[in-house]
Each structure stands twice: as structure tokens, then as C-alpha cells.
Design goal:
Distance between the termini: 31 Å
Order of helices and strands: HEEHHHEH
Mean pLDDT: 75
Largest sheet: 3 strands, antiparallel
Radius of gyration: 22 Å
Helix content: 40-55%
Number of helices: 5
């Protein structure tokens, strides 16, 4: 089972990975003298340290702070007050979506550990990254 959630990998982890498939050719930035780079998908096994760190995140149940009416009364301009309230609502939404994503990731890690005994991820690397040039 492969999750669609991406995980940042260090260059060393990507270099140690096994290449599973080529993904096509893309042009590098113009600075690189029109050099083309192939992107490859590689499977990387997560270290136990990374797994432990992912599973140790427990602050997923604290409520997001909601500004009190007393605090909002400090804003004399009603437009400013509503803008602040809207900004806090967007921030709360982002926090709650992030928490849900972390929970999904933790469920995936637990499932992989239970079934395989290890956790692997599929990531994209360029030829340069794979060769250790970046």
C-alpha cells in the first residue's frame, strides 16, 4: 500500500535508495547551461529514528486558540475586527487539516510496521541528487 503523503528525505537517504522506475526528462533551470535532468522515483526505507519521531507527535488534540470577544473588542474598526476573525479562522482550519494529515501519516506508518516490519516511501530524485552532485 503506497500513501500519497510526501515525506522529505535527506540526500543521503535518497542516495541509499533503490531505483524502481524512470519518470521522464525535464529541463533544468537556464543557469545550468540547458542541461537536462532525468527524474527517477526511488523507494527509501525510513530509519527507525525517523519512524520514532513521526509516531512521537502527540499534540494533536489541543484546541486551537480562539480569540475572545474581549480581545476582539480592542479592534475599534469593525472591518479590522472581522479581518482578524477571518484570519484566525483560516489559521485554525490550516492547523486542523495539518493535524489530520499527521494522523493519516501515523496510521500509515503503524500499518506498514505491522505488516512489513519496516516503512518505505517513494520519492522523486534527479540524476544530480542521485549522484550526490547537489
Amino acid at each position: 500500500m503506497m500513501s500519497s503523503i510526501s515525506v522529505d528525505m535527506s540526500k543521503a537517504e535518497a542516495e541509499a535508495a533503490v531505483v524502481t522506475a524512470d519518470d521522464g526528462v525535464t529541463a533544468a533551470p537556464a543557469k545550468a547551461a540547458e542541461k537536462t535532468t532525468k527524474k527517477k522515483k526511488v523507494r527509501v526505507r525510513l530509519s527507525q529514528e525517523r519512524i520514532d519521531k513521526m509516531l512521537s507527535i502527540t499534540s494533536l488534540t489541543k484546541p486551537f486558540p480562539v480569540p475572545s470577544e474581549k480581545f476582539l473588542a480592542r479592534f475599534e474598526d469593525p472591518v479590522e475586527r472581522e479581518n482578524y476573525r477571518a484570519m484566525m479562522a483560516r489559521a485554525a482550519d490550516l492547523v486542523y487539516r495539518s493535524r489530520e494529515r499527521v494522523k493519516q501519516e501515523q496510521d500509515y506508518v503503524r500499518e506498514e510496521l505491522a505488516t512489513l516490519g519496516y516503512v518505505e516511501r517513494e520519492i522523486e530524485v534527479t540524476d544530480d541528487e542521485e549522484a550526490g552532485e547537489n
